Amino acid sequence: MRAPVSILAAAAVCCGALLAIGSREPAPKFHAKTLDGEVFTNESLKGKVVLLQFWTTWCPYCKEEQGAVDTLAHDFEGRGLVVLAVNVGESKKKVKQYLADSPRTCKVVLTDDTNLAAMFAAKSYPIYVLIDRDGNIAGKQDGAAGEEALRELLARAGLEAE
Questions:
Q1: Which residues contact 4 (CB under 8 A, 6 or more apart)?
Q2: pTM for the complete prediction?
Q3: The domain 26-155 is classified under which CATH number: 3.40.1080.10, 3.40.30.10, 3.40.50.300, 3.40.640.10?
């Protein structure tokens, strides 16, 4: 009699685990203001796919992937992608100096103008967080892995090359 109960319990645990794998957690409530003064929140981005890139000016991997991120921002902009490049812990002056030499086409946000870096505990760079059109976390990537890996990340939110 004990065996069937154990089997049912194990099945329930396994099914619960399978359900959890397919479910997505809502993105935490955030606000972000770009260097250009644009303001974004969860509410204003509903219906869009959002790629957050946490980066610094001193990170060689961030600089290496900058072109790929900007390319994706351009390639998928018409399909609802918004890329917010969140610089972590550096002054506006330092970031503007960096951008003068290495311009970005995506939207740049400073730590002082958002609560995102604290929410995602960005401590190594780059970190990518993908938010789907429903405002849920669709994926995360720690570290640089190239444009193809970023395209695969975007596919988790339904954005794929045409």
A1: none
A2: 0.83
A3: 3.40.30.10
